[in-house]
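step 3/5: co-fold with adenosine-5'-diphosphate
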Amino acid sequence: MQTVIRSILGGVALGSLTLGAGLAAMFAASWLGLGSDPWVVVAGITIAVVMVGVLTGLTMSRAMRSLRRDLEVAEGGRHLVGPRWMRPILRTLAEYRIRHQQAEVAWRNRERDLEIRAHVSESTRLQSEAVLDVMDEAVVVCNTMLEIVSANQAAARLLGFDLEQSVGRPVSEVVRNAGLRRIISETIESGTGAEPRRGEVRFKSGSACEVVSACAVDRRGRTSAVVTVLHDLTREREISQMKSEFVSKASHELRTPLSSMQAYVEMLVDGEAEDEATRQEFYGIIQSETQRLSRLVDNMLNISRIEAGIIEVDRARIDVHELVDRAVQTLEPQAREKNITLHTEVAPVGTAVEGDADMLQQVIINLLSNAVKYTPEGGRVTVNVDSDTLTRSVHVAVSDTGLGISPRDAEHVFEKFFRVENYKRVAKGTGLGLNLCRHIIETVHRGQIGLESTLGMGSKFWFSVPMGLEPARVAA
Ligand code: ADP
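step 4/5: write tokens
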């Protein structure tokens, strides 16, 4: 731009200079009457040239200053300073510059606007992807050409495709389940105004999903995509089956002592217990059934409280040694009745843990009580307490010389209501004691519990708990 202005001004100045110089020389020669003396002509021309040059230079520099100001200010309607004949050119140049600057500003604004929009749409896309990825439900979005536009991790896992490679590929290639493909294409066919299509699809793995598929519309109300959400029903069905199994097992277990109590009470009411000894016997049975019932209810409540995460955990520093001593004292009379020797082997130091004393006490009593129950007369039960400084945990093992448990039954002993069929006559029980032990050790104390047993040779139930209790998930 400046080059153009300079060349225009340069041309104008040069022309003026030549013209002015010629005129001044002729005028000077004739006025002085010097005829055609070449020195005089040269002197005159020189003076004229200098004068014209100075004048033109002054004019040009004014014009240049004016133009620069005008260009810098870049505003229309400004009074232009400079020779009259140059003003249209100056004005045109100034206007051109102004328009150019305005266009540049507008372009920059538009560029910034586009950048902001691109940024917003990128962050919206990332947000949507993040939302889709944290969803448990599988989501597949495809366009009207039945090509995958986006999907989430849950969909990739459920439908078994590679998330990265799925985008842009036809649904028919990516989704192998025919039922699901049919629901998606039916959704497109039924169009925008239709209700979302619902259905259930089954997979070869045996899992089942509830499917909801609906059209997404653009601003003009036309179908732009089909969004399909798959909700896995497998886990829900498992949970509801577990619940109904629990209810039926629990009611069965509750009914047994209740029916027994009812029968004995009826016999007492009907006067069937004629002598005092029989009556005392009936009272004893009713009492033990009541105790069993209350143990059952307590265990059920404790297990469900731990499972629901609402059990109160009273954490404190406790010495497992003391808990074992107390449990042995409690079980001593029962053991003595069966002539069973109770023996303890406790490490001299390092048996303190951070945990709930009552709950850990209950675990040791349950294991010890089982050992006494399922060990025939004259047997031996040993409680061993040791600490492992490497894993920073305290290890407790209750071993007996009793009936032992077969490998097949051993797999189930920690399940709710499980009782070894053949031992039901050996001792009464609820089938919930070991399940509660497992919950207390694993869920509340972040420990481990296990069993080693040989059928006919005896069993060793063991557990280990960390010396320092990590914050448990269970609400304190
Ligand atoms: P229960 O109240 O029936 O004892 P548990 O949950 O404590 O319930 O135990 C479940 C089952 O595991 C028992 O019914 C019994 O069949 C078996 N069992 C537990 N401890 C022993 C053991 N020390 N020896 C043999 N069998 C045992």
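step 5/5: annotate
Confidence is low (pLDDT under 50) at residues 471-476.
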